Amino acid sequence: MSGRNGRAGRILVLAMGNDLLSDDGAALHASRLLRWIVPENVDVVETSEAGFALLEFLEGYPRALILDAIRTGKQPPGTLLRLTQDDFAPVESPSPHYAGLPDLRTLADQNGISFPDEVLMLAMEVRDPYSIGEELTPEVSMALQDYVRAAADILMRWARNGSLSHKHQAATGRAD
Amino acid sequence: MQEESKALWNDAQARAARSAMNARRITIDPITRLEGHGKVDIFLNTEGNVDRAFFQVPELRGFEIFSLGRPAEDMPQITSRICGVCPTAHHMAATKTLDDLYRVEPPPTAKKLRELMYNIFMLEDHALHVYILGGPDFIVGPEAPAALRNVVGVIETVGLEVGKKVISMRRRLRELMTLMAGKAVHPVFGLPGGVSKGIAKEDISHFREVAQDALEFSRFTLQVFHDLVLKNDDYVKLITSDTYTHRTYYMGLVDENNAVNFYDGDLRVVDPTGGVFARFPAANYLDYVAEHVEPWSYVKFCYLKPVGWNGFTEGADSGIYAVAPLARLNAAQGMATPEAQKAYDEFFATLGEPVHHTLANHWARVVEMLQAAERIVELVNDAEITGTDIRTLPTETPTSGIGVVEAPRGTLFHHYETDERGLITKANLIVATQNNSARMAMSVEKAAKDLVRNGEVSDGLLNKIEMAFRAYDPCHACATHTLPGQMPLIARIRGADGEILRELRR
Asked: Domain A11-159, what fold?
């Protein structure tokens, strides 16, 4: 079985987060702007789901760009991080509710499910993904435009059939 | 590009500011912090042995305060965003609370549609747990190497064909839910007095086909459980071992025949001998459920009010109770469908009645899958399911509403009070994990007592604690949607004065 109908040749933008948890919703906010300016062959999808449910979103797309909030505490809030699949170690968590990207790929490979060849994550370092509320913190809010622009750049490059699979660890910088 | 996105951004901001909804809201924001970690605190006495231990459960007070001033009809959407794991349970509890708030009775078709949606959700969620979440403990085995104790190991054990079956069944069930509730991130389905959308006559044959396959799949799952778990003496020994056994009260929803019901009915409570202790409608929950607060924690522990709080102790004098699949089977007198009833009889014939073994939750979950599937088949073959009368319009002025459902993880209460415009003035949510919190604390404590002696902490501590709480499938939810999936378990060992002696994490 290979993939879901109509996804071949398309690009998925999967925006993850919970927009009731302040900065945790950063990617969702970005995707709501991004969806207006993406090329025609891009599907922008929002989700608050976790773990294995995400397999169904990714299945069948050859390429996926994942947007998410991240809190490493190592960069100032608003910094963008590009992560590839190599950056994620399999998760050992107390509940497989919290399956990670490598687990999903392994599961897909094992079961003959078509999984994107290229998965890139564009994550924004946030200040506060824990407080209950709909507002983003000021730093994250200010950086939202850059987030949208950086995501759009990646999609444009993909649309021209370029590849971004080489690893970028470094931040692309904050607002000018 | 920059100018374009700036313009879009400004436009979006302006529209948000103009929105009429905004004008009605009083938002106090942000309110409180929410921790998504699994946190265990183990308190030692002066000799260095375990005095007590507890497992931190989610604190929902922030969401309750967040909802103040918002229109009650937003609650099915707001509360379904609490948790990335079981949004449908909150959505349905909120919807039923709105029925009660507006004193409106949904038409029969609407009730059946809701029940159908809910049973599909229950089956899909239970299947996930049996094969993927609990599977590593039972299908692969608790002693298997860590590298295999995951879904990949489960599929290697049950076979690739089974793996494909599980994944495709879940997907098809989720597609049915999308057909019913739309393609939204969270269900847009329940409305006070009914539902937003019915099932078209031309779509029902597809529902019937999936339903029949789902029933086959549930039968097959029971068989897998038999072959891999019940035929293995070591597993059965583990299930019935003292570490995972607590003699407590049990609570669950039952129908008019005292059979298990996930969507509706009265709450029935049995005592540790299995005798009926109470049967009450959700509206009276405050007479039965109280919350105990320990001075050393902000976590609230639910207990039965008429029995009272008697510390973290077992038996009839302690008000501690459990919810979730095992509790539902204990609290009911049977299942609502024939094949599930057979499986129920075997369950109790094997383990005695009531069953106090926490790890038997996994088996109980399989019994419930069968009931959910049988009920789905019944509902999609019911002539009324394609009816078009799906909503009774509310006309009453709202004041207060209480609703309950059985979430996959146990009883879920919603309770709202509003002003005459229907704006929330008070909200109280009790989720399954809170109902179970005292019993879970006892499970963690038992595991800790085995593995912490005279200040020495054995390495297997985290594993054993995980086994104990995974059976409850506690939902620490909320902040943990991320694909990298970091969800650290932190165990803190504290001395007699509360100082942290050691911290274990993974």
From this structure: Rossmann fold (3.40.50)
